[in-house]
Amino acid sequence: MSKIEELVERAKQLKEKGLTTGEIADELNISRDTAIWLLTSSRTERPPSDIYVELKSINGSSFRLREMARILADMVLDAGDADVIVGVATSGIPVATMVAEEIGCELSIYYPKKLKWDGEESHARGTFSENFANVSGKACVIVDDIITTGKTIHEVAESIRKRGGNVLAAAVIVDKRSHDDVEGIPVLSVLKVFRI
Fold first, then answer.
1. Each residue of 59-95: pLDDT tens digit?
2. Which end of the chain is less packed: N or C, by CB atoms within 10 Å?
3. What is the pTM of this model?
4. Which CATH number fits domain 61-192: 3.90.226.10, 3.40.50.2300, 3.90.640.20, 3.40.50.2020?
5. Residue 46 DSSP symbol
């Protein structure tokens, strides 16, 4: 079975479990367009331009994830004095928690609208968890596992600003866009993917 066939099967299984298209995209570390293609395409049409990144070898080990968090924390320290680390649900929360602990910051959790997204048009909105730190008036760093398009980072940054917070940077394990920033927000990444 090819990797594409495996991804098709995984996407279908996740859909059968009740996950939205946005949640499937997040779970598989792919764009929403790629998730739609996996779920609906007959595979005769050309797939969206995307890169599949599997992080099981890191995310499946608390030791390895801790080491990745230490690397990200070191990078975050170069961005300035952060008050709050904002973990992006779902995949960014474990590493964000460890980054916050590593540098002694508060932790906030953001649920992006993509997790609620399940169609071409969606009026879903992202939200902060009220059970974690408030970002109002604080210097924040957004932490996630992967940037695919940058839309989620932009969404989180806008939500932080609307609450009166300041965004210092975004820190990720993998940047599939290979850009230094997302609309002016510096991106700190352990790995950058370059298309040749």
1. 889 999 999 999 999 999 999 999 999 999 888 999 9
2. C
3. 0.82
4. 3.40.50.2020
5. P
